[in-house]
Write a structure and sequence with these properties.
One of its GO terms (biological process) is regulation of transcription by RNA polymerase II. It is found in: Nucleus. The protein is of the alpha/beta class and 446 residues long. It has 3 domains: 195 residues, von Willebrand factor, type A domain (Rossmann fold); 60 residues, no CATH class; 93 residues, Zinc/RING finger domain, C3HC4 (zinc finger) (Herpes Virus-1, 2-Layer Sandwich), CATH 3.30.40.
Length: 446
């Protein structure tokens, strides 16, 4: 075989077949009032379902220490989740790492794998998402093998979280695809040690429910068994995984005590052109960097922990992004047609809204008896089935400022910026949401 044939075969081997990436579009098709096929209603309902959540301000741990445990055993070769369980898990793991640090920029993350009855360390605990993604890409080329060991993985997680400070959370998220665990000892002893170390465990199962997994989640989450879920399909799997990016609620009084943390807020510096500077975190030559405000050590990225003195170095924007979990943006409500005439375009992006039914019927009637032309005038169009969470007028109103927005701005405001454009543009000052705080923002004493 020539080199060109070898390269061609490698490209074909790395490319997924057409049947492996099918989107199942036939499952979301609906027939509209005019007989046409419609899939937008279900897509919009799916967006709204992800957004509708409890927005009660609660005390949460914004400095998190989480270990992601991935099943890399032979059970992950199953193709019930396309293309395979493991390949989908690697793709979602990359997305989880980026979203985790987007929502928790001053937190720490580590990744552990389970294969051949032992636990392997994929990446060390750290706050740099680039390092974790590079480690995932390296391990994604290795085929799954053997059986998983849940006990060995949990013991490795205990060791990784042993030095986590008391003011931060200690969490473990397990992606489990097997129906067994090849453990060297009694896993109940490990569960007791997790309770002593105040480590919470959440599990996303890819197969049937396993009794020990349910017991593990229930005992480590104060009796809450909802932290163990089984993924039904690819979209549900992604939703369960990304749901963990929200910090958990602080439950015990001992964890609710306030404590002062020392942090540094360095500015970006540029070394002169005729000099060479090295970053202390990677020992590589760099010109740009950040100098530790305590000892002057150079680091290349933020947030980071100073390699010399251990001071936490962040930017003010990192701290601000971490606070939106404590003051969540309230859910926007659906606007009925009776109140839809007040707006003709989205307040944020100025996208035009559909006209009210009275105006739309005027373009399709004969102007005398209001009956449809072309069908004899004696048959009324059947109303389209209403999806749960979808506004009939395609308008969603903020409960504070009252402005109307489209579904895309609704998703963007609640998942990205975590602030209402209408409330932020109000020149009359801060508008409170009735819960002793601004809508999606934090009040600071002057």
């Amino acid at each position: 075989m020539s080199d060109s044939d070898g390269d061609l075969s490698k490209k074909k081997a790395g490319k997924a077949a057409a049947w492996e990436v099918v989107k199942r579009s036939w499952e979301t098709v609906e027939e509209g009032a005019d007989g046409s096929l419609d899939v937008e209603g279900r897509a919009e309902a799916e967006k709204r379902r992800r957004l509708l959540r409890d927005t009660t301000p609660l005390q949460r741990g914004i400095i998190r220490h989480l270990v992601l445990v991935l099943d890399m055993s032979f059970a992950m070769t199953e193709k019930d989740l396309l293309p395979t369980r493991l390949r989908l898990t690697w793709r979602l793991a990359r997305e989880f790492v980026k979203e985790y640090f987007e929502q928790n920029p001053i937190s720490q993350l580590g990744i552990v794998g389970m294969r051949d009855g032992v636990a392997v360390r994929v990446s060390e605990m750290g706050g740099n998402p680039v390092d974790h993604v590079e480690a995932i890409n390296k391990w994604a080329e290795i085929d799954p093998q053997g059986s998983p060991s849940l006990q060995n993985a949990l013991e490795m997680c205990r060791g990784a979280l042993f030095h986590a400070p008391s003011h931060g959370t200690r969490e473990v998220l397990v992606v489990y695809g097997a129906l067994l665990s090849s453990d060297p000892g009694d896993i109940h002893d490990t569960i007791a040690n997790l309770l002593t170390d105040r480590i919470r465990v959440s599990i996303v199962g890819l197969a049937a429910q396993v009794a020990i997994c349910e017991e593990l989640c229930r005992k480590t989450n104060a009796g809450d068994a909802t932290q163990y879920n089984i993924a039904l399909d690819e979209m549900h799997y992604r939703e369960l995984l990304l749901r963990t990016t929200t910090p958990p609620v602080t439950r015990t009084q001992a964890q609710s005590t306030a404590s002062l943390l020392m942090m540094g807020f360095p500015s970006r510096t540029l070394a002169p052109a005729d000099t060479t500077a090295y970053c202390a975190c990677h020992n590589t030559p760099v010109r740009e960097g950040y100098l530790c405000t305590r000892c002057g050590t150079r680091v290349c990225r933020l947030p980071a922990e100073c390699p010399a003195c251990g001071l936490t170095l962040i930017l003010s924007t990192h701290l601000a992004r971490s606070y939106h979990h404590l003051f969540p943006l309230r859910n926007w409500v659906e606007v009925p047609w009776a109140r839809a005439a007040a707006s003709r375009a989205c307040y944020s992006c100025l996208a035009p809204f559909p006209d009210p039914p009275a105006q739309r019927r005027g373009h399709r009637t004969n102007g005398t008896d209001g009956k449809r032309q072309g069908d004899g005038g004696d048959k009324e169009a059947a109303p389209a089935p209403k999806q749960k969470g979808v506004s009939e007028s395609s308008r969603y109103a903020c409960q504070v400022c009252g402005n109307h927005f489209c579904i895309d701005c609704d998703v963007f405001a609640h998942e990205v910026i975590h602030n209402c454009p209408g409330c932020q543009s109000d020149s009359r000052g801060a508008v409170t949401n009735g819960e002793n705080g601004t809508n999606g923002a934090m009040e600071v004493d002057s």
